[in-house]
Write a structure and sequence with these properties.
The protein is of the alpha/beta class. 32% of the residues lie in helices and 13% in strands. The structure holds 2-acetamido-2-deoxy-beta-D-glucopyranose (5 copies).
Length: 498
């Protein structure tokens, strides 16, 4: 039994969501396209962004026919349906069946060719992957019909009638995939120009030449020509703005299109200053590590021996999506795994973007104000106070740098109410954002003490605790920071004063 048939038999009965949906792939060439339609009984939730655009009325008779009543206008690239790991291949006698895939068979799902788009978009395959995993748990036995429909229309599959725009094609290499091009492809598909773009994975220059934009392959970096490889000798591009890590295709695409992605996601103008702040921040927080990882630049000096392994970063997780060495898979399956990887990287990026836009940026304003007004809290400027809980650490170091604060005027402690607003805390500012070491920890003698004992020793009533490492503590029981304001100056006193 062909894997695709096996898949269908396993999958189809598993579903109680009995909705009639038609699965279709368009596998055409210049003059004609053929659609393989698989009527099934379910939809894929998350990726069902549009209606099936062709073959909607295909009858499950199993014969080729030269008519199709489904219109190919509209969302040619956003079909709601299912793809198995092996795309059924049209008989070679069928006009247009030589779709450019290996051996003249069906090409990669979603891949375009001159004059036609091959198959569904990649999101659809990713959805199918998820569905397949789930459905494999299901029952057995249900017949399904496979039908080949030949589309006589030609250009219609290449043009989105809604926008009247040519559908673009993104090219990248085939075979083993990595985090950088997975994300690069996702990012491109999140700017208006490439929103519905098809994807072609190949190393064949003739194939890549047909693509509107090519990333991570082709040995050319030329912005005018939309060529974004980083593997060629002499490539030294960095992000700039203080970042000196050599770029991968992710960083390269982000450098040139990142602001558009952010502006489009947040529905802001690309020139909005917030877009620039987020663009820089997301490079630092998200993209740079991918660039470094891809270019083999280690995070620490190579002579430093890591104390433990950490292989759950995004680049590693994309790596794990590739098939293991002793599992043979066809190109379509790898393509569909790539799509999964692209979704993985992209969704994570978008989540991070949303966080930074909705939470990080507003906090930054509060911290900036706190830093500017800290001398009103304590004359030395050594104490910052926030009237409500705010994640300050992320911002403080950047803002200190921005405000050009002298070393001796840097804040040592931050006072804030806890997340629930019940008690107040004093936290020692670390020497760097990731460090566990404080600029000035709370006094050694207080560490690990609680309640009355701590209050007696510090001479301040209402103390709750000081952490054993001295980085945090002094929660005040009452709902005022006054007690902490008494406590902290004591902590800042020099040793000889004790
Ligand atoms: C799909 O088709 C149905 C019925 O024609 C329509 O109500 C629905 O809005 C369509 N959905 C999309 C996403 O076009
Ligand atoms: C399908 O094609 C075969 C061979 O050409 C023919 O015998 C059969 O009647 C056709 N079936 C339908 C439903 O058209
Ligand atoms: C195309 O898909 C979008 C959602 O992706 C939907 O809003 C729109 O109605 C669809 N257009 C057609 C013609 O189906
Ligand atoms: C990449 O695609 C080419 C055909 O374009 C094929 O010859 C080659 O084997 C593929 N490589 C991998 C690793 O799949
Ligand atoms: C990989 O190869 C080993 C040794 O030949 C075999 O035991 C194992 O089952 C293989 N794994 C898969 C997933 O086929």
């Amino acid at each position: 039994m062909r894997p695709s048939l096996l898949f269908a038999c396993l999958v189809l009965p598993a579903l109680s969501l009995a909705q009639q949906v038609t699965t279709s792939w368009i596998i055409g060439t210049n003059s004609q396209a053929s659609t393989v339609s698989t009527p099934t009984v379910f939809t894929i939730g998350p990726t069902s962004t549009g209606n099936s655009t062709s073959g909607g009325s295909a009858s499950p008779t199993g014969n080729s026919t030269s008519t199709v009543s489904g219109s190919t206008s509209g969302n040619a690239t956003s079909t709601s349906s299912v793809v198995t790991s092996n795309l059924p291949t049209a008989a070679t006698g069928v006009p247009g069946a030589n779709g450019g895939g290996p051996g003249g068979g069906a090409p990669s799902p979603g891949a375009p060719a001159q004059g036609g788009i091959y198959g569904p978009p990649d999101g659809y395959i990713a959805g199918a992957e998820a569905l397949r995993s789930a459905a494999m748990l299901g029952g057995v036995g249900l017949s399904f019909a496979l039908q080949i429909v030949i589309l006589t229309s030609t250009r219609s599959t290449q043009v989105s009638s809604k926008r009247g725009m040519e559908i673009k094609t993104i090219g990248t290499h085939n075979g083993t995939f990595h985090c950088d091009e997975a994300l690069a492809v996702f990012l491109l598909r999140h700017i208006p120009t490439y929103r519905d773009a098809a994807l072609k994975r190949s190393r064949d220059p003739a194939v890549l030449d047909t693509c509107d934009i090519v990333v991570d392959v082709g040995a050319v970096y030329d912005v005018q020509k939309n060529r974004f490889d980083h593997h060629q000798r002499g490539f030294q591009e960095v992000f700039g703005h203080g970042f000196t890590t050599k770029l991968s295709s992710a960083g390269l695409v982000y450098k040139h299109f990142g602001k558009q992605v952010i502006a489009s996601e947040l529905k802001l103008d690309a020139e909005d200053p917030q877009v620039t702040v987020l663009w820089l921040k997301l490079y630092k927080e998200f993209i740079e590590a991918i660039d470094a990882h891809d270019n083999g630049i280690s995070q620490y000096p190579s002579e430093a021996k890591p104390r433990y392994r950490s292989r759950t970063d995004l680049s590693s997780r994309v790596g794990w999506l590739n098939p293991p060495w002793n599992v043979t898979v066809d190109a379509q399956t790898v393509d569909s795994l790539f799509v999964k990887a692209s979704q993985l990287t992209g969704e994570e990026f978008l989540n991070r973007l949303q966080y930074h836009a909705q939470a990080w940026l507003p906090a930054r304003d509060i911290v900036g104000t706190g830093l500017l007004t800290r001398h009103q809290v304590y004359p030395s400027g050594g104490i910052m106070l926030f009237e409500r809980f705010v994640p300050w650490k992320d911002h403080l170091f950047e803002l200190e740098e921005e405000q050009n604060i002298a070393r001796e005027a840097l804040p040592l402690y931050v006072i804030y109410p806890d997340e629930f607003g019940g008690n107040w805390r004093v936290q020692a500012v670390p020497v760097s954002p990731e460090s566990f070491e404080s600029r000035k920890a709370l006094p050694e003698a207080w560490r690990g003490l609680r309640d009355d004992e701590l209050s007696r020793l510090s001479g301040v009533e209402g103390c709750i605790f000081v952490h054993a490492s001295g980085f945090i503590g002094g929660e005040a029981k009452c709902r005022t920071h006054a007690i902490i304001l008494l406590l902290v100056p004591q902590a800042t006193k020099r040793k000889k004063e004790h």
